[in-house]
Structure formats: C-alpha cells, structure tokens
C-alpha cells in the first residue's frame, strides 16, 4: 500500500496555499521536470504531500541561487538512492520474512 505522502490528491491551488509559491512557479517547476504531478482525465494536476516537500526544497535552493538543472540532477540522484534503499530493505524483509 502506498504511503499517504505519495498519494496524488491535492490541487494546484492547495499546493499554492501550502507552499506560498505562485501557480506560475509550480507550473514552471513541472515544466523543468522537477516535479511530476498526475493528471486527471480532464487534465487537472494532482499533487502529493511528497510533491509539496519537494517544492519547498526547490524554493529554498532557488533562493540560494541554485539553477534548476542542478536541482533536477540532485533530485534524480536522491531518487536513485531511495529506490536502492527500498530494494535492499525489500530483499532483507523477504529473506528474513519480516514485515514493515
């Protein structure tokens, strides 16, 4: 079961309120492939709490003068690390027949 943090349930308006970022900034970060909201059948963007956390990190880095391509590179590296960690944890759980 997916964690509540990763469920895409929030509209861009709610994300705007939570982060303080403008709608334009949020869309720009999507355009730059820093976040990947899901789309409903009607094309409405849906974000997760994890996306909100990522947007706040992006905003902090941008204030420090970090370019978007550098942020994307950092996000990709951390995502690969998280995936590797989950795979190892899964292998250990399977080997020792443990549950999370």
Automatic annotation (TrEMBL):
The keyword Glycoprotein does not apply. One of its GO terms (molecular function) is DNA-binding transcription factor activity. The keyword Lyase does not apply. Pfam families: MerR_1 (PF13411). Residues 9-77 form the HTH merR-type domain. SUPFAM superfamilies: Putative DNA-binding domain. Keywords: DNA-binding, Repressor, Transcription, Transcription regulation. This is HTH-type transcriptional regulator TnrA. It comes from Halobacillus karajensis. The lineage of its organism: Bacteria, Bacillati, Bacillota, Bacilli, Bacillales. The gene is tnrA.
């Amino acid at each position: 079961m997916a964690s509540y943090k990763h469920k895409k349930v929030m509209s861009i308006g709610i994300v705007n309120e939570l982060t303080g970022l403008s709608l334009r900034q949020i869309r720009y970060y999507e355009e730059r492939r820093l976040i990947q909201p899901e789309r409903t059948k009607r094309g409405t963007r849906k974000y997760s709490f994890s996306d909100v956390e990522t947007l706040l990190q992006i905003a902090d880095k941008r204030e420090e003068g970090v370019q978007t391509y550098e942020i994307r590179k950092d996000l990709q590296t951390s995502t690969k690390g998280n995936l590797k960690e989950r795979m190892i944890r899964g292998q250990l759980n399977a080997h020792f027949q443990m549950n999370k």
